[in-house]
Structure formats: C-alpha cells, structure tokens
Amino acid sequence: MRIAVTGCNGKIGRAVTARLREDGHDVVGFDVDGARGAGFTRVDLRDYGQTLDALLGVTFRHDGIDALVHLAAIPVNGLVPDATTFHHNMAVTFNVLHGAHRAGITRIVYASSINAMGFPFEEPPPYLPLDEGYTAANNTYGLGKAMEETMAGQLVRWEPELSITALRFTNVVGEDDYGSFTRAGELDYRRDLLGSYVDARDAALAVALSLEKGAPGFEVYAVAASDTGLTIPSAELAAAWFPGVPVRKELGEFETLLSIDKAAERLGYVPQHLWRER
Ligand SMILES: NC(=O)c1ccc[n+]([C@@H]2O[C@H](COP(=O)([O-])OP(=O)(O)OC[C@H]3O[C@@H](n4cnc5c(N)ncnc54)[C@H](O)[C@@H]3O)[C@@H](O)[C@H]2O)c1
C-alpha cells in the first residue's frame, strides 16, 4: 500500500515509518519539520489547502494515497500555551481527517492518548485494569484527544467504507528513554500513567496491525506494554495507588493496569519490547 504518515519525523512517526517500510509499504511522510529527502514532503497541516493538496498528490512523491496514519500534533501540554495546544491539534486533526475524506481515503489510523482516559489520574480510575470504555480529559491536550475521537466517530457515518482507528498510546519510550527505568522500584514512578509505558516499536506494531485489520467504522484501542514499568507487583500498585477501586481480574505479577485486552483480541497485538527483558 501507499501510506501517508503525518508527523513522520517525530518520535512515533520515525518508528512507524521504519516499520511500514520494512513491511514493504510505500510511505510518504508529511511533517512541518525535517530534512529534504525522498519519501518526505514538508506540509503545515494547520493549513487546509496544503493538507488537502498533499493528500491528493505531490509531484515526484505520489499520485494518490491508499491509507493514512495521522501522528502530527503538539504531543503534550506545556510546550506552547494551553489554548494553543488545543487549537493547533484540533485544526490539524480536522484538516487531516476531513481532507482524507475529501480525497477518498478510507483507511485511517491515528494517535489518541491516555490523556483521553484520565491521565494523570489525580481522580482514581473507575476500575482496573482501565480500558477504552472510560473517557476523561483533564487538560487541553486531553480535551483535544477526546474531541478528536468524537469527530472521528461522526465522520465514519458520512462514508460507509471509512475505517478510522484511534490508538490511545500511553507514554511512548524510545531507545534513548530507558534510563528512567532505574526508578522502577519507586512507588510513585509512573503512577500518573497507571504504571504503563510502551516501546515506540510496539506503538508502530499497533499501527501496522490496525492498518491491516481495521474494519469500516470507528474503533478505539488502548496501547501499552503487557507489563508495568515497575518492579512492584501490579496488585500492590493498585491497592497502594487507588485503594477501594475495583480490580476486575486476577492480575499477573507485573501485568499492565492499562488494559490491552481489546487490542490483543481484535488486532492480535502482542507487545514485543518489554523493559524487563532487555
Ligand atoms: N510520545 C508519547 O508518549 C505519546 C503518547 C500518547 C499519544 N501520543 C500522540 O502520538 C502522536 C505522535 O507523538 P510523538 O511523540 O511522535 O510527537 P513528536 O512531537 O515527537 O512528533 C510530532 C510530529 O508532528 C509534527 N507536527 C506538529 N505539528 C505539525 C503541523 N502543524 N504540520 C505538520 N507536522 C506537524 C512535528 O514536527 C513532529 O515531527 C501525537 O498525536 C501525540 O499526541 C504520543
């Protein structure tokens, strides 16, 4: 397939682009930032004209896209003013999803976030392991992610063939980020993430599987590693962090508290890169 990847030069974008190319796909990268080269076109996705034109065709790059992976965003609060985070991400995601609809692209996978499901969990989650059934936004970045999911859920009603998959990634760990796991024995390490993490290559695996298996309609999946980032057993973490919150299953010793059961069952997602196996 020829696949457009927005945000191709970011942390997840680089892993996704590498993975999809390894799988034999023709990847056309769109990013506002990056060095000139084959397979990359500079696009500012805040501009609908640029976005639509780039999706329809780019001379010397492509004459039509089969599928789209949308990862471009301001990826956290704090980098720019809070309102700017919201305005930027909402405009970009509208432009990309609506532009793709106009361009007739019917297979889309995009990045949502644990920020749409309660991060940083100052209020306890309603149950553990927490799954996609719960939506809660506590900052403007998360608010954007929650609203983008609402938008995607409506857009698929406009085109019966359209498949949109939202992947609620937890904190994505690249090769350079593993140093923080020296804190794995500390009770407050990753509490705001329910203890979770995901290797960038497993984030890319979830994207690849979603492109392959996405059916018409809109689906949301939480994406994490199958274990926590801590050396304290998961049942102890749940009891210490969120006393009284129901734990709905018998937990494996270090089993993730951010459920990946839906992704495992429907996409065949099995994370391959666990920090404790390095
Ligand atoms: N990294 C994480 O832990 C994490 C967790 C959950 C969700 N996410 C989401 O995953 C996606 C990718 O995140 P990331 O960590 O790779 O972020 P990143 O900042 O490393 O990459 C984002 C890329 O998007 C590009 N971009 C931003 N605005 C753009 C615009 N207007 N036009 C074109 N390109 C633009 C940037 O130049 C950058 O290369 C984002 O939607 C983010 O919200 C990330």
Automatic annotation (TrEMBL):
Belongs to the NAD(P)-dependent epimerase/dehydratase family. It comes from the Bacteria. The keyword Oxidoreductase applies. The keyword DNA damage does not apply. This is NAD(P)-dependent oxidoreductase. Keywords: NAD, Oxidoreductase. Residues 3-179 form the NAD-dependent epimerase/dehydratase domain. It comes from Pseudonocardia adelaidensis. PANTHER family: 4-EPIMERASE, PUTATIVE (AFU_ORTHOLOGUE AFUA_7G00360)-RELATED, NUCLEOSIDE-DIPHOSPHATE-SUGAR EPIMERASE. The lineage of its organism: Bacteria, Bacillati, Actinomycetota, Actinomycetes, Pseudonocardiales.
